[in-house]
């Protein structure tokens, strides 16, 4: 079962501008939707004594970047949901994992940032990337999901896998600071 639905919301990045209705809507889709998907999958998987439940989170569950509070908090909630189900469902042979990708230039990404040119979006992400020379594609995220769902990952449970080329390990503030000093 792959809980992959999610949305960013209205894009309010300042808490003083954030709407309660938007916050609830983001949590309903990103967290409650994942919970319900896992709940009903578990009802089938527990009697079968096997299964795999995957959640989509975001690199924003590992670092704080300029995204709306509702989105970031909901993605932390998805990771928490993953962790809370691991032990309970592991007793029944069910693996539970989470995948946290970096930005990919999808139609949602383009709409959110007001970018209509895919190449420009990829150049923007590449400029900030730690791993140079490649661009994260939606297929890369799909490959990670397929791996975690496969028998090759039969003993992997309880992880939040970053698919970000090492981005979550880098402090972008340092990068910008050095560029300002020596650039």
Automatic annotation (TrEMBL):
Pfam families: adh_short_C2. GO terms for molecular function: oxidoreductase activity. InterPro entries: NAD(P)-bd_dom_sf, SDR_fam. The keyword Oxidoreductase applies. Keywords: Oxidoreductase. Belongs to the short-chain dehydrogenases/reductases (SDR) family. This is Uncharacterized protein.
């Amino acid at each position: 079962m792959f809980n992959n639905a999610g949305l960013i919301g209205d894009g309010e990045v300042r808490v003083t501008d954030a709407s309660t209705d938007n916050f609830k809507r983001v949590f309903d889709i990103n967290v409650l939707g994942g919970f319900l998907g896992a709940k009903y999958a578990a009802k089938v998987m527990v009697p079968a004594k096997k299964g795999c439940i995957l959640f989509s989170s975001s690199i924003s569950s590992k670092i704080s970047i300029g995204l709306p509070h509702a989105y970031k908090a909901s993605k932390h909630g998805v990771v928490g949901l993953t962790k809370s189900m691991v032990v309970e469902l592991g007793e029944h042979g069910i693996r539970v994992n989470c995948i946290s990708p970096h930005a990919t230039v999808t139609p949602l990404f383009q709409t959110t940032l007001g970018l209509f040119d895919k190449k420009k979006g990829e150049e923007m992400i590449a400029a900030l990337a730690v791993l140079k020379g490649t661009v994260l594609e939606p297929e890369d995220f799909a490959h990670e999901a397929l791996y975690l769902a496969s028998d090759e990952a039969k003993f992997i449970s309880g992880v939040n896998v970053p698919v970000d080329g090492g981005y979550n390990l880098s402090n972008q503030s340092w990068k910008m600071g050095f560029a300002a000093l020596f650039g």
